[in-house]
Amino acid sequence: PVLVVDFGAQYAQLIARRVREAGVYSEIVPHTVSAEEISARNPVGIVLSGGPSSVYEEGAPRLDPGVFELGVPTLGICYGFQVMARTLGGEVANTGLREYGATDATIITENVLLEGQPVEQNVWMSHGDQVAEAPAGFTVLARTAATAVAAFANDERRLYGVQWHPEVKHSDHGQQVLENFLHKAAGLPADWNSGNVIAEQVEKIRAQVGSGRVLSALSGGVDSAVSTALVHEAVGDQLTAVFIDHGLLRKGEREQVENDYVASTGVRLITVDARETFLNALAGVSDPEEKRKIIGREFIRAFEKVQADLIAEAAAEGDPIRFLVQGTLYPDVVESGGGSGTANIKSHHNVGGLPEDLQFELVEPLRTLFKDEVRAIGRQLGLPEAIVGRQPFPGPGLGIRIVGEVTADRLEILREADAIARAELTAAGLDNEIWQCPVVLLADVRSVGVQGDGRTYGHPIVLRPVSSEDAMTADWTRLPYDVLSKISNRITNEVRDVNRVVLDVTSKPPGTIEWE
Ligand code: XMP
Questions:
Q1: What is the CATH number of the domain that holds 449?
Q2: Are residues 324 and 362 in the same domain?
Q3: ipTM value > 0.90
Q4: Does one domain contain both 384 and 416?
Q5: What residues does ligand 1 touch, defined as CB less than 6 Å away?
Q6: Residues 6 or more apart whose Cβ sits within 8 Å of residue 376
Q7: Ligand 1 centre and the CA of 111: distance in Å?
Q8: DSSP secondary structure string, 462-488?
Q9: From 400's CA, which of 88, 118, 146, 330 has a CA 20 to 30 Å away?
């Protein structure tokens, strides 16, 4: 792989994705790895990410200098560029001149790294320190008004660096810098694509499970749908998929899984109707954390019950179930390995997130993949667009979108309102501009309204459209007024007991995306 060395910026994952978009497989490693550890992974290229620190600071992240002696083509970006400069004997200085945002850069020397690019171009900068002098043996390739050394190269050693961020779309020719580095400087072919990933994963899954039987929990979401389909592609009917209907799903989701998904994959599916159990367990509860815990617990119970049945059945056939599919994605792997503790704001619960004491070996075919890659694979496997293109939906479902106690009646109201909002957003062609749009029922709030000739005393529905890259931060999406108006009219006209629609205009932080 190409190894992306993470200096602690949020940019490492973005770089890894861009490298893959260039058709080259990449993985992220922390900057603390030694040159030997890096070498042991046989990298075909190395990219050093940006980072929030100054190379001068006490405890600023460093890199084992041996990494530059491995003979592996290496590209330093921003902080990574400065680390490379300093480690190899160049000079990094704090001139007090900061560059932030769109900046004009000028190419001053032709080089493979910036090949095919206009001499003047717009790049995205974010730095205080700068490389004042390139190390011996390096040629300066570009400058800006404030930065004399904005890019450099040592072709003989195949070491390159840029002060700007080629991985962000605001850098006009950023992706081409990465592609020049990968394809031209490092000579790597573009052969990482969803077709190859499927073939590779199918082979891996077969090697792991052999003739063993496999269980999978489908949630209706993208990750479990694609991981299950991949495993089915690999081992066919050795796989049994279980779908637990907890009654907190959106309108039409169960049918999508039971009909469209099964039709397109041929997966053998067992649906467990646990709606009543969940409602009974949630009766009288309005505290959000309490609800989450109950939903998580009931999910595990329901799963264990069906699993016990299946295990008994399989054992009777002398063929026990030994494997469990999980839709773990690469960002989860990177973030949980990252170690640095982030505050637990909400106890996120994944339906499909299962108890630890299960006696199963996990099959995780998406462990190396980003979400957009998972979607591409799902499409290639022929899954319904309604599932593959689905926006994120929390495991506890509509249970945490009813502020107040969850009842069958309230779920019915929310399902209708949500279906209208989704349909209108799709009809307006806004799906790609919105990360997700929770629709929330304020079940304990009533307000006075007038409908027809009469006074009403109904509930408000909240629309929470947000734009985001990764759900860690978000901004409220500026939806067109006419679309909002249509949604509002339809909901108040068509959904009983709702007489008001309000818009949530809070970013995250301070608000979270969900209301509970
Ligand atoms: P918040 O509300 O924390 O949500 O800003 C961030 C993202 O996570 C989703 N979310 C969940 N997903 N289980 C999940 O699988 C959960 O318990 C859960 N709670 C929130 C939320 O929809 C958003 O995409």
A1: 3.30.300.10
A2: yes
A3: yes
A4: no
A5: 292, 345-346, 348-350, 392, 394-396, 436, 471, 508, 512-514
A6: 194
A7: 46
A8: EE--EE-SSSSSBEE----HHHHHHHH
A9: 330
